[in-house]
């Protein structure tokens, strides 16, 4: 179904320019001839636009952010989500399980192969405090756009968090193809947080992106390339009861008090 792109009421010049940029970028990334259509908002509500143009998918360029309306799902937009809570805990000297398992240290290069909306990439970037780099990969065009634009424009009230978001390098690409292109030991940590094979239904932030995200499971070949490209470790986040750890060769498993677990391959 065609995606409509529009603005908030009475758009300013910056919104119109961003709407045009987003339209061009989505056409370029999706590889389709006419996957999107930019339309004037005038005084139409989102439901009225949907009815007028026969489309359930609308990307709204508001004054604050990009908002994606899909079918009857809750509106989706970039937000640091749990990263904000985790960053505050790091500031208070509290441990973060993923950062501990990664043994993050100054100068590290981190590769997040399945970025989604970037929560873990933000925590990695904050932990490095500008001494190192985080590269985040997202294969799907719309999540990539929400993430890349959100990281550039989101404003938080947490000291150092905005700077951490701006430092993340985002690329729209398939993680397996990207890993294959890397020289040996290119990154200190290679991280995977794919769509869980067994969803956690209570997670509203994940539920909003599930229909847009790449549904494919991580392959053994991708893990093999990750092991080759990593210097310290490869980490997989999954449901604590997932069989993916065994299938993909993760023997070191750390189960939290929540419903998630981390598998680690040490190198």
From TrEMBL:
Molecular-function annotations in GO: rRNA (guanine-N2-)-methyltransferase activity
Keyword annotations: Methyltransferase, Transferase
Gene3D superfamilies hit by this protein: Vaccinia Virus protein VP39 (3.40.50.150)
Organism superkingdom: Bacteria
Keyword Methyltransferase: yes
Residues making up the signal peptide according to the UniProt record: none
Protein name: SAM-dependent methyltransferase
Organism this protein belongs to: Paenibacillus piri
């Amino acid at each position: 179904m065609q995606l409509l792109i529009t603005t908030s009421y009475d758009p300013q010049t910056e919104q119109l320019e961003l709407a045009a940029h987003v339209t061009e970028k989505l056409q370029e990334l999706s590889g389709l001839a006419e996957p999107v259509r930019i339309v004037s908002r005038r005084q139409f509500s989102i439901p009225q636009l949907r009815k007028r143009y026969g489309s359930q998918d609308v990307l709204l360029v508001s004054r604050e952010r990009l908002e994606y309306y899909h079918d009857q799902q809750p509106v989706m937009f970039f937000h640091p989500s749990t990263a904000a809570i985790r960053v505050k805990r790091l500031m208070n000297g509290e441990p973060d399980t993923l950062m501990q398992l990664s043994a993050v240290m100054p100068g590290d290069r981190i590769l997040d192969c399945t970025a989604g909306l970037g929560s873990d990439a933000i925590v990695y970037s904050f932990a490095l405090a500008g001494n190192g780099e985080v590269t985040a990969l997202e294969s799907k065009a719309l999540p990539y756009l929400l993430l890349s634009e959100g990281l550039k424009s989101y404003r938080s009230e947490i000291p150092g968090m905005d700077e951490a978001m701006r430092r993340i390098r985002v690329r729209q690409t398939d993680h397996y193809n990207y890993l294959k292109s890397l020289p040996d030991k290119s990154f200190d940590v290679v991280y995977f947080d794919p769509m869980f094979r067994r969803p956690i239904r209570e997670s509203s932030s994940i539920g909003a992106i599930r229909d847009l995200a790449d549904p494919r499971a991580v392959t053994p070949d991708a893990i093999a390339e990750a092991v080759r490209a990593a210097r310290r470790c490869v980490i997989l986040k999954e449901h604590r009861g997932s069989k993916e750890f065994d299938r993909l060769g993760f023997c070191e498993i750390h189960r939290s008090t929540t419903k998630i677990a981390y598998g680690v391959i040490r190198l």
